[in-house]
Specification:
- Chain A has 9 helices and 8 strands.
- Chain A is an alpha+beta fold and about 280 residues long.
- Chain A has 2 domains: about 5-50 and about 120-280, Up-down Bundle (Fumarate Reductase Cytochrome B subunit), CATH 1.20.950; about 55-110, no CATH class.
- In chain A, the strands form 3 sheets. A 4-stranded antiparallel β-sheet of chain A has the order 2-3-4-5. Chain A has a two-stranded antiparallel sheet with strand order 1-8.
- In chain A, helix 1 runs antiparallel to helix 2 (about 120-150) and helix 5 packs antiparallel against helix 8 (about 235-260).
- Chain A is globular.
- Chain B has one domain (about 60-250): Oxidoreductase, molybdopterin-binding domain (Sulfite Oxidase, Chain A, domain 2, Alpha-Beta Complex).
- In chain B, about 30% of the residues lie in helices and about 25% in strands.
- Chain B has 7 helices and 10 strands.
- Chain B has a 5-stranded mixed β-sheet with strand order 2-1-10-5-6.
- The relative contact order of chain B is 0.16.
- Residues about 1-20 of chain B have low confidence and may be disordered.
- The chains are: A alpha+beta (about 280), B alpha+beta (about 260).
- At the A-B interface, helix 1, helix 2, helix 6, helix 8 and helix 9 of A face helix 1, helix 3 and strand 4 of B.
């Protein structure tokens, strides 16, 4: 953000200071989380492909109504891929429902370039999913434990009351929409929208992923039957798991877009080496 | 200040590792070492679930109103071996459930004898590994009581279920369905050998005349068309050594998740 350098008086200078932005634990757990979520998403889509329908309630199988369905239908010689949500159906031939695998048109919900493994193999998908689910939970607990003990969560992520005032939030929304990001000392801290987004992911979406995942386990249902009451049944939990995963994908897209728009090198460096450059106007500090 | 080259190197290697991790997965898949690492999670899952459950935690039991209008038939819908066809024709009068292996008094039970024993009825959810679920009402003999009758030997560790259905046609018979549970699940109060479903004799599609219900695990553990129960100290010598038809094809032996 150097848009104002042209207005500078001769005696003011722009200096760059490197601050320590992210701790080693934050950086390490961040990148492990990237790896875990990437594997969990790709293997999760493999698992979804084994039964590409979503239900609500305790039970749900082929004969029961589905809220969402991804499939292929039509003339056997010329099938079409579709996604159906409620009563609305969209033709998605080529990507969802029907896509090319090894050059052959194949009926499969998600295409091979999105699933792990690429070929249909539920057992392998489950092995990847459960191994990385453990890694994800352990990594998340390390981050949360560190965040609580070090004060990182309270200091950096909990929004202050004045940041939550509607006027303040509105101003940030307008600034974000104009792609004007905080600079100078304001860039030392997360802005309120950032804090809210991170808290929603850390305290909302990620725990929801783990809990709805566990609710699909018959073994965990016996240990904690209350999970079935919280989410309204195993099939509801499966649907919420899928929707929450979609919201996480949406978060990642916005997150990466913001990283790119607000200074990709500086942001990437801060999450790799921990150092973040801040430009200050005025006499050298 | 970090130089551009070092910065690029760091970012590049980070992205490269990520791409390798994903793009290389298909290459890693057949690798035994990768498999061994991934499989280590199964042991952890089983240990933690068993710890959280304790021995007695029950699977949820539902009400009549919750029963699925249609209970999907899965796996084999009708075993096509001659022996089974003959038994079915005779309405299973000649069918016997053999219980042998590491037991004090090997025995064969007729269907009438099993039905005369104390029964348990439970409305439970059947969860397929693929993701769907169906709720049904099962009536049968608790397996634990039956094992007490034949008396298991101190060296007993697992109970293996031999079935009449052949899910995959093979020359060596390795396509024959079988399953196994350990003694914790074998003696769990909800583990029953069911002869009735939704108040009627078990249909052929659902495993007539007798199937296993082990309610804290997934559908593939619920072996149908039971012919013989063998108490063993290890299931390593059966077919692929995995302890079950699907286990020999890559699925987890502990199917609690």
């Amino acid at each position: 953000m150097i848009e104002e350098t042209t207005d500078l008086q001769p005696e003011t200078r722009v200096s760059t200071v490197l601050i320590r932005r992210h701790s080693g634990v934050t950086r390490l757990t961040h990148w492990l989380n990237v790896l875990c979520l990437a594997v969990l998403l790709a293997s999760g889509l493999q698992i979804f492909n084994a039964y590409p329908r979503l239900h609500w309630g305790q039970y749900g199988a082929d004969a029961d109504p589905a809220m969402l369905e991804i499939g292929a239908r039509g003339d056997p010689g010329k099938p079409r891929g579709f996604v159906r949500v409620g009563g609305a159906s969209v033709d998605t031939t080529g990507v969802l429902g029907l896509s090319k695998a090894d050059g052959e048109w194949t009926p499969r919900a998600f295409p091979d370039w999105l699933t792990l493994p690429s070929y249909q193999d539920l057992a392998a998908g489950r092995r990847w999913h459960f191994f990385f689910a453990w890694a994800f939970v352990i990594n998340g607990l390390i981050y949360l434990g560190y965040g609580l003990l070090s004060g990182h969560l309270r200091r950096d992520l909990a929004p202050a009351a004045k940041e939550l005032a509607p006027r303040h939030l509105w101003r940030e929304i307008v600034d974000h929409a104009r792609l004007r990001f905080p600079s100078g000392d304001d860039a030392r801290r997360y802005n309120a929208l950032q804090k809210l987004a991170y808290v929603a992911v850390l305290a909302g979406l990620l725990p929801l992923m783990a809990l709805t995942g566990l609710t699909m386990s018959p073994g965990m249902n016996a240990a904690f039957p209350v999970l079935l009451d919280i989410f309204g049944g195993r099939q509801s939990a499966r649907t919420i798991h899928f929707v929450t995963a979609s919201l996480l994908v949406a978060f990642v897209l916005v997150h990466v877009a913001m990283v790119v728009l607000s200074g990709p090198w500086n942001n990437m460096r801060s999450m790799i080496t921990g150092r973040y450059a801040i430009r200050r106007k005025g006499p050298d500090a | 200040m970090i130089s551009l080259t070092r910065r690029r190197l760091l970012i590049g290697s980070g992205l490269g590792a990520g791409a390798l991790a994903l793009g290389g997965c298909d290459l890693l898949e057949p690798n035994d070492q990768t498999q061994a690492v991934l499989r280590s999670a199964e042991t952890l899952t089983m240990k933690i679930q068993r710890l959280l459950q304790g021995r007695g935690a029950l699977a949820r039991e539902y009400s009549e109103a919750d029963i699925s209008p249609t209970f999907r038939v899965n796996g084999t819908s009708a075993p096509d071996i001659d022996e089974y066809a003959r038994l079915l024709e005779g309405k299973f009068v000649d069918w016997r459930l053999k219980i042998d292996g590491l037991v004090e008094r090997p025995q064969a039970f007729s269907l009438a004898e099993l039905k005369a024993l104390p029964a348990r009825t439970q409305i439970t959810r059947h969860d397929c590994v693929e993701g769907w679920s169906a709720i049904g009402k099962w009536t049968g003999v608790p397996l634990g009581g039956l094992l007490d009758r034949v008396g298991i030997k101190p060296s007993a560790r697992y109970v293996v279920f031999h079935c009449a259905d052949e899910l995959e046609k093979t020359l060596d018979g390795s396509g024959r369905y079988y399953e196994s549970v350990d003694l914790i699940d074998a003696f769990h109060p909800q583990t029953i050998l069911a002869y009735a479903m939704n108040g009627q004799d078990l249909s052929v599609g659902h495993g007539a005349p007798l199937r296993l219900r082990v309610e804290r695990q997934l559908g593939y553990k619920q072996a149908k068309y039971l012919m013989r129960i063998e108490v063993v100290d290890s299931f390593a010598s059966f077919w692929g050594g995995g302890g079950g038809y699907w286990e020999d094809r890559g699925y987890e032996w502990y199917a609690g998740i």
